[in-house]
């Protein structure tokens, strides 16, 4: 994301490796951003993000072609979603199925994504075609994404939960069966608290637990303890999630 220095990228990667029980080999990809927000507002960092997409694609090719890695998961946060979504288009080429077998991409994650929704939808066919599954985490109370949309333009952000689905959003869900949308704010009235902010994906234990189970297992959202909404492929955390997740995690990890 923007304002995230190399130290933080390495720390995030190390946390994923540690809390998944060393089941993953984390690799940090750090695209150049400045520590102050003005570089983002003046689009300097955004320009860096655009030019870094081909470097990320190059890194994925290198890992896939030069190692015996069984599966490559890709996790992006905030403005990093712009880099990852562009890189996936480059990796897809004209034959996503053939490239999926080459790159062995498993789960592609977009958490609190500061990418215009319309841009994501344009790139989704390549992302969906290359991945075994695509997980989008969003919240209705993400101040950083609200300000980004106001100051930077481009329309609603992918990581900001809508109050109601627009027709193009419903079409996106219905036509991409590997897509999983986790609305972290849905059900907050029943739970008594919201999962909000811009760093909830790793700071809130419910969201980070779901992320780690998704990366370490092939479990469906329901098997990971999430509840299905009336809208296909949209899931949420029910009030009893905190009481159930321990047993769920033990059950999913037991075969391993």
List the SSEs and their pairings:
Layout lengths: L5 H14 L18 H4 L2 H23 L5 E6 L2 H13 L3 H8 L1 E7 L5 H14 L2 E6 L4 H10 L14 H8 L4 E5 L4 H4 L8 H4 L1 H12 L10 E2 L5 E3 L4 H13 L3
Helix pairs in contact: 3-4, 4-6, 11-12
Write a compact overview of the structure shown.
This protein has 256 residues and is α/β, with parallel strands linked by helices.
Characterise this structure.
By secondary structure, this protein is of the alpha/beta class. It is built from twelve helices and six strands. The protein has a six-stranded mixed sheet, sandwiched between helices. Helix 3 (44-66) crosses helix 4 (80-92), helix 4 crosses helix 6 and helix 11 (205-216) packs parallel to helix 12. The protein is globular. The chain starts with 5 loop residues before the first helix and ends with a helix. The model has no long low-confidence stretch (mean pLDDT 90).
- Main pleated sheet: 6 strands, mixed
Provide the residue-averaged pLDDT.
Answer: 90
What is the share of helical residues?
Answer: 40-55%
Please state roughly what percent of the residues sit in beta strands, choosing from under 5%, 5-15%, 15-25%, 25-35%, 35-45% or over 45%. Answer: 5-15%
Tally the helices: what do you get? 12
Work out the radius of gyration. 17 Å
Class of secondary structure makeup: alpha/beta
How far is it from the N-terminal to the C-terminal residue, by CA? 33 Å
Count all strands and give the number: 6
Which consecutive residue ranges, at least 5 long each, have pLDDT under 50?
none
Describe the global form.
globular
Strand ordering within the main sheet: 1-2-3-4-6-5
Order of helices and strands: HHHEHHEHEHHEHHHEEH
């Amino acid at each position: 994301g923007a304002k995230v220095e190399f130290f933080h990228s390495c720390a995030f990667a190390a946390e994923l490796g540690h809390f998944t029980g060393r089941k993953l080999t984390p690799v940090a990809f750090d695209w150049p951003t400045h520590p102050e927000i003005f570089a983002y507002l003046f689009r300097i960092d955004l320009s860096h993000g655009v030019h870094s997409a081909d470097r990320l694609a190059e890194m994925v090719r290198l890992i896939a072609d030069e190692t015996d890695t069984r599966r490559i998961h890709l996790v992006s946060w905030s403005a990093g979603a712009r880099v990852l979504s562009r890189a996936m288009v480059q990796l897809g080429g004209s034959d996503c199925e053939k490239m999926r077998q080459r790159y062995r991409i498993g789960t592609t994650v977009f958490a609190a994504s500061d990418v215009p929704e319309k841009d994501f939808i344009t790139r989704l066919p390549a992302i969906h075609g290359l991945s075994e599954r695509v997980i989008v985490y969003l919240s209705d109370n993400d101040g950083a994404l609200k300000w980004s949309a106001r100051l930077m333009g481009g329309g609603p952000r992918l990581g900001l939960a809508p109050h109601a689905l627009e027709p193009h959003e419903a079409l996106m869900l219905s036509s991409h069966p590997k897509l999983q949308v986790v609305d972290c704010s849905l059900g907050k009235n029943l739970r008594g608290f919201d999962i909000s902010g811009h760093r909830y994906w790793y700071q809130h234990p419910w969201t980070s637990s779901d992320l780690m189970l998704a990366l370490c297992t092939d479990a469906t959202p329901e098997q990971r303890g999430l509840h299905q909404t009336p809208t296909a492929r949209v899931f949420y955390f029910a009030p009893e999630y905190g009481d159930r997740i321990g047993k769920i995690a033990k059950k999913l990890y037991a075969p391993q």
